[in-house]
Amino acid sequence: MIIHRKTLAALAVNPRRHYVSAPLHPRKQTDPGQMTEASDSETGFLEALGQRVRTMRALRGMSRKVLARVSGISERYIAQLESGKGNVSIVLLRRVSGAMGAHLEDLIPETEPAPDWAVIRDLLRKATPAQIAQAKEVLAGGDQSGQRRMAFAGIALIGLRGAGKSTLGRMLAKKIGWSFVELNKEIETQNGLSVAEIIALYGQDGFRRMEQAALTQLLARKEPMVLATGGGIVAEPLTFELILSSFYTVWIKAEPEEHMARVRGQGDLRPMADDRSAMTELRNILVSREPLYARANAVVDTAGLTVDAAASRLVDAVAPVLHDKHAFGLRSAAS
Predict the structure, then answer these.
(1) Secondary structure of residue 232 in the 3-state scheme
(2) pLDDT recorded at residue 57
(3) What is the CA 308 to chain-centroid distance, rounded?
(4) DSSP secondary-structure letter at 108?
(5) What is the distance between the terminal CA atoms of the chain, rounded to a whole angstrom?
(6) Is 247 helix (H, G, I), strand (E, B) or coil?
């Protein structure tokens, strides 16, 4: 279908207007009811976009101030974007895509897309949940039936900073005779840089790539371990999926006030330094990540517990997998 520029412009102003040969005068011919409906739709779109930005920022554990500094965008603009008052140009782009009967993402150029990507994308849009699940398993390394061939790597502790993952993980590893590994320390060792230096030099994307590489190298050792992960690992879908499929995962959780007190006690407020609303940001991060943390095999709530009591609760939580790894569809490294 060929659409002339003038026609496209008119349709973008009012997507419901049908093409006619007579000149179009949108402002004179537009039905006020249609304009109100379009305005409501665009408001909802901007609000959803703002919510998406807020959620993504919280998943990555970034305050608004940090995001503004890293992105070079004013904190005021980010606040507007998150409140649903973002740059109107995205609305115009949405109108254009709607006028052409296309998806908004279809107008965004891909970076060297695979030749068949357009076909794969459209097939995924029409696929059933079961078909999507099977495709994910195959792409992640499973066989044609979708069965993952993954060896059991041990126990992984997930949760927000200050939950006690390192302290409890070290105690658990000592008790069961496994090695203990902190993923962030492993990243630093493999790259010869601190986490802060990696982020400063390569950004969040660079750090996530190194995180996945470090995890892959750890899995290649084929020996059971107790792994303490970084709080933001859930923000990287592929890496988190690798954790969930390779380890028996335990969510170590606590109250926000306890998280903050422990982090302050460690002298580390990254990435909430110099932010007066640090507690609010921490709560937002926790709320955004909770659905992902909840995918763990077990949960250990350390709120109000002593270290010894929390350690005992963790031992109880992992007892089933230590007794029978096969009960969770996991294979030991020796099998």
Answers:
(1) helix
(2) 83
(3) 32
(4) S
(5) 58
(6) strand
